[in-house]
């Protein structure tokens, strides 16, 4: 690959030594490198192509790592990683032991803030700006946030705070009109107003060209500023922006834009100016997701993230032999949702900006009026569901386990305390693989168990998933069905909407001495372990209400109890089993096998589970060693 300028950059100070006119060539080389590298490893793709010019301009103008760059979500941080000493390790990105897919403080001093969830950048950069001021540090703080991430309440909480504080902060709004799917809501419409874009762009250019002259002529400058105000008022006329040309100015920010985010030279000039300005600044740039790679430009949804290029080495055994891939839990859910919606016209589905990932594409096509993408707004998604449920509509909130953390108070205060029948379809529960700890669904059983009125179901295979979704949907109270990323054991799935008895588990294998009390994804490994140990295996189906009779029935004839779950051991399903045995007076020596109190790693899920002693092989050894001690 011919990338001589890129190859000359070890760290950002090398970049800052380049003449300005070489930056477009650098952008082109960086794009070539990125296409090749992510093409091989897989990973987040289109967003990275869209910020190449911006990343170069930022490191060119800002004195990184003294100055702070805070990337929102962080899925667009690959060009930043390449320019900050990690180019040679890009081949390891998102793999076990390799570079993380998101900025990570322990990975590099250039990664100012660990991230993965959206809409934290403005708050974090503001915190840094205020801290630097308190400590007397000469440093600048920049938050880089996408238009999708900007739809979240947390971003607005930070804007609200920053606009009324005397902090030097630059927020760069990277507007590509896309979240993972097309961005939704009133904000994108506002940002997309051509009147606003054109007028603001013109104003910026006029101001740029005349500022030096005007500074020397205060009276003329005053007239020019009055003209600008008038100009804004005219821009308002005929546009659907009735109150103000710039929302952000009303929040106390100086607004610059909208400018072309792919013109690296112009970006440098603007950033140089903004770096020296005091107070809260907002730069609105327009970019194209997937810029420079036609396939991604034309289908940014598909190219938001891409898989690894298959090679003989990385095609797993199962992939080689199987003709038809197993359906994922997401697909099982998506199919159930359509079937249940056909049977009940009161069903509506809500997603906080995860239509594709949560399996709602088909549902949106079949039931467009009953489909709600509320933007990256998990808190709102849940309160909105509560409101719908108050009126007798039956909401299903399709949400990743990790993102449900954002809506915890809403789940408790708005849904559970009022005992409203909202069904949470919790995807990506447990270890998620390449995205790593920020996206691990490791905590939902612990944080849901203590919520009153809540029913929690943990399907052990694809058919169970459908059965438990139907069961929970029929309830007149809040409920959650949590299932893992990817596919299960490939169980045959019935097309019916049959239900099972609430709060009752089933014995899958009868053995002796040891009872394996398994939840969800751990039932299959438990069955494998049980072959060698001649143990009993219970598929508990529900964490809440837990099957007290079954636990008593298991505890009495067995000498040892082993609880298995893909959730934090602390406060999780195993804790529920222990509590029940203690309360029922049938406590037996018990081993909890779940996710220990550590930050999990990124990489292949099977490898991570093995490291956590949750593979069948490691479980067997762990149980046998523990038995020897008891
Ligand atoms: C709290 C939270 N909810 C959902 C997501 C999933 N997610 C990751 S990127 C993304 C879209 C972000 O859009 P934008 O900020 O505009 O960046 P772009 O992808 O357009 O570059 C979403 C919804 C997340 N990371 N965090
Ligand atoms: C950055 C982000 O949060 C999403 O793009 C996430 O990586 C999607 O994860 P899945 O691949 O599990 O849908
Ligand atoms: Mg976007």
TrEMBL record:
Its EC number is 2.2.1.7. Its cofactor is thiamine diphosphate; Mg(2+). GO terms for biological process: isopentenyl diphosphate biosynthetic process, methylerythritol 4-phosphate pathway; terpenoid biosynthetic process; thiamine biosynthetic process. GO terms for molecular function: 1-deoxy-D-xylulose-5-phosphate synthase activity; magnesium ion binding; thiamine pyrophosphate binding. Residues 327-491 form the Transketolase-like pyrimidine-binding domain. HAMAP family: DXP_synth (MF_00315). Belongs to the transketolase family. DXPS subfamily. This is 1-deoxy-D-xylulose-5-phosphate synthase. The gene is dxs.
């Amino acid at each position: 690959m011919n990338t001589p300028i890129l190859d000359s950059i070890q760290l950002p100070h090398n970049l800052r030594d380049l003449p300005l006119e070489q930056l477009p060539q650098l952008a082109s080389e960086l794009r070539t490198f990125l296409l090749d590298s992510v093409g091989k490893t897989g990973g987040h793709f289109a967003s990275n192509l869209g910020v190449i010019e911006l990343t170069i301009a930022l490191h060119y103008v800002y004195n990184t790592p003294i100055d702070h760059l805070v990337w929102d979500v962080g899925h667009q941080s690959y060009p930043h990683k390449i320019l900050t000493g990690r180019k040679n390790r890009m081949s390891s990105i998102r793999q076990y032991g390799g570079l993380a897919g998101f900025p990570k403080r322990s990975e590099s001093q250039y990664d100012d803030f660990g991230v993965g969830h959206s809409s934290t950048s403005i708050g974090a950069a503001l915190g840094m700006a205020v801290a630097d001021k308190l400590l007397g540090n000469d440093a600048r703080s920049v938050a880089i946030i996408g238009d999708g991430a900007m739809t979240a309440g947390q971003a607005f909480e930070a804007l609200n705070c920053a606009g009324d504080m005397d902090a030097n902060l630059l927020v760069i709004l990277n507007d590509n009109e896309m979240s993972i799917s097309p961005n939704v809501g009133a904000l994108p419409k506002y940002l997309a107003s051509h009147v606003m874009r054109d007028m603001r762009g013109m104003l910026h250019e006029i101001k740029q060209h005349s500022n030096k002259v005007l500074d020397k002529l205060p009276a003329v400058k005053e007239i020019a500023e009055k003209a600008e105000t008038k100009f804004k008022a005219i821009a308002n006329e005929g546009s659907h922006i009735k109150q103000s040309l710039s929302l952000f100015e009303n929040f106390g920010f100086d607004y610059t834009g909208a400018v072309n985010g792919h013109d690296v030279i112009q970006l440098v000039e603007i950033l140089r100016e903004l770096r020296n300005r005091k107070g809260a600044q907002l730069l609105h740039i327009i970019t194209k997701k997937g810029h420079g790679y036609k396939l991604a430009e034309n289908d940014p949804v598909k190219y938001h993230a891409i898989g690894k290029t298959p090679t003989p080495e990385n095609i797993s055994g199962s992939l080689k032999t199987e003709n038809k891939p197993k359906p994922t839990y997401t697909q099982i859910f998506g199919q159930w949702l359509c079937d249940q919606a056909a049977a009940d016209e009161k069903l509506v589905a809500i997603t906080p900006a995860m239509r594709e990932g949560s399996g709602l594409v088909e549902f949106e096509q079949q039931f467009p009026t009953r489909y709600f993408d509320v933007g990256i707004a998990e808190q709102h998604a849940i309160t909105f569901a509560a409101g719908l449920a108050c009126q007798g509509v039956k909401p299903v909130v399709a949400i990743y386990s990790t993102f449900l953390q954002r809506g915890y108070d809403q789940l408790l205060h708005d849904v559970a305390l009022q005992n409203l029948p909202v069904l949470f379809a919790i995807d990506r529960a447990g270890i998620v693989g390449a995205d790593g700890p920020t996206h691990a669904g490791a905590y939902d059983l612990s944080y849901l168990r203590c919520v009153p009125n809540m029913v929690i179901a943990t399907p052990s295979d694809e058919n169970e998933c459908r059965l438990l979704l139907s069961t929970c949907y029929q309830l007149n109270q809040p409920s959650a069905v949590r299932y893992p990323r990817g596919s299960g054991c490939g169980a045959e799935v019935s097309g019916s909407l049959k239900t099972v008895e609430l709060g009752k588990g089933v014995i899958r294998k009868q053995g002796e001495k040891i009872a394996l009390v398994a939840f969800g994804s751990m039932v299959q490994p438990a069955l494998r372990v049980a072959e060698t140990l001649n143990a009993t295996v219970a598929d508990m189906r529900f964490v809440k209400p837990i099957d007290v009779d079954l636990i008593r029935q298991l505890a009495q004839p067995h000498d040892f109890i082993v609880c298995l779950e893909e959730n934090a051991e602390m406060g999780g399903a195993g804790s529920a089993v222990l509590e029940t045995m203690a309360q029922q007076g049938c406590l037996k020596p018990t081993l909890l096998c779940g996710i220990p109190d550590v930050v999990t790693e990124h990489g292949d899920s099977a490898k991570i589970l093995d490291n956590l002693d949750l593979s069948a092989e490691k479980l067997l050894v762990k149980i046998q060693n523990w038995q020897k001690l008891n």
